[in-house]
């Protein structure tokens, strides 16, 4: 007795008729909804969006999931995307534009999209002028040249939640340099090796002392602490 027995599991048997969907995707692909098409379209839309964003903005996107077999229409895909901007408000606006790319791709392909936040956003760093000036004053008095320039801020190439702290309380996030060979980037073996040298340790200790002295001044000098808090209040009006 010739014939074929096909065993189907029970996906969504009590809600959604999952068996029928599996058959449709395998035998009548025109009846399926391709989640990978939606992800690909969203990826392309984000790529086109890059032409219309600020030079300081960044959008990074990958497709870690887009199906499990080449002859089955994917019913699920996944995109991971991150956005960066010069400040928090611009980042939120860019985030909305990226979401629109995903929503538009889902609409065009007949898919649905669930937008989930992988982590809380990192805010831009709002340096406190009073604290920065005091740190600079102490370091310069020790023969270490530091510059406090709050008018020209370059977008940071790193991420830190120190920015979120600076939105709430007076904060300081200074940069200093250790002697590295030309072309050495952070988070590399070359940088690691240089950071272990006595010279690098000495520079780091001097900076740590400057931060400690500035912190003690906040604790002991009420007038200085009040100025630092006032800086935060004034900065909130500019955000």
From TrEMBL:
<protein>
    <recommendedName>
        <fullName>Peptidase M20 dimerisation domain-containing protein</fullName>
    </recommendedName>
</protein>
<dbReference type="Pfam" id="PF07687">
    <property type="entry name" value="M20_dimer"/>
</dbReference>
<feature type="domain" description="Peptidase M20 dimerisation">
    <location>
        <begin position="28"/>
        <end position="105"/>
    </location>
</feature>
<dbReference type="InterPro" id="IPR052030">
    <property type="entry name" value="Peptidase_M20/M20A_hydrolases"/>
</dbReference>
<dbReference type="GO" id="GO:0016805">
    <property type="term" value="F:dipeptidase activity"/>
</dbReference>
<dbReference type="InterPro" id="IPR011650">
    <property type="entry name" value="Peptidase_M20_dimer"/>
</dbReference>
<dbReference type="InterPro" id="IPR036264">
    <property type="entry name" value="Bact_exopeptidase_dim_dom"/>
</dbReference>
């Amino acid at each position: 007795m010739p014939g074929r027995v096909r065993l189907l599991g029970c996906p969504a048997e009590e809600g959604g008729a999952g068996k029928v969907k599996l058959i449709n995707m395998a035998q009548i692909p025109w009846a399926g909804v391709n989640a990978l098409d939606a992800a690909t379209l969203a990826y392309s839309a984000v790529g086109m969006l890059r032409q219309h964003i600020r030079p300081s903005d960044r959008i990074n996107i990958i497709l870690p999931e887009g199906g499990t077999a080449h002859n089955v229409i994917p019913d699920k895909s996944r995109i991971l995307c991150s956005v960066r901007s010069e400040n928090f408000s611009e980042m939120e606006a860019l985030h909305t534009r990226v979401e629109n790319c995903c929503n538009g791709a889902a609409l065009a392909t007949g898919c649905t999209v669930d937008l989930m936040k992988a982590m809380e956003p990192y805010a831009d760093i709002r340096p406190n002028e009073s604290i920065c000036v005091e740190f600079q004053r102490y370091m310069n008095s020790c023969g270490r040249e530091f510059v406090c320039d709050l008018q020209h801020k370059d977008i940071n190439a790193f991420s830190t939640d120190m920015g979120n702290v600076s939105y709430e309380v007076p904060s300081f996030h200074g940069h200093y340099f250790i002697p590295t060979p030309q072309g050495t980037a952070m988070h590399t073996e070359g940088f690691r090796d240089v950071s272990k040298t006595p010279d690098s340790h000495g520079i780091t200790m001097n900076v740590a002392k400057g931060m400690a002295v500035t912190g003690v001044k906040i604790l002991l000098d009420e007038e200085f602490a009040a100025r630092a808090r006032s800086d935060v209040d004034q900065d909130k009006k500019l955000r």
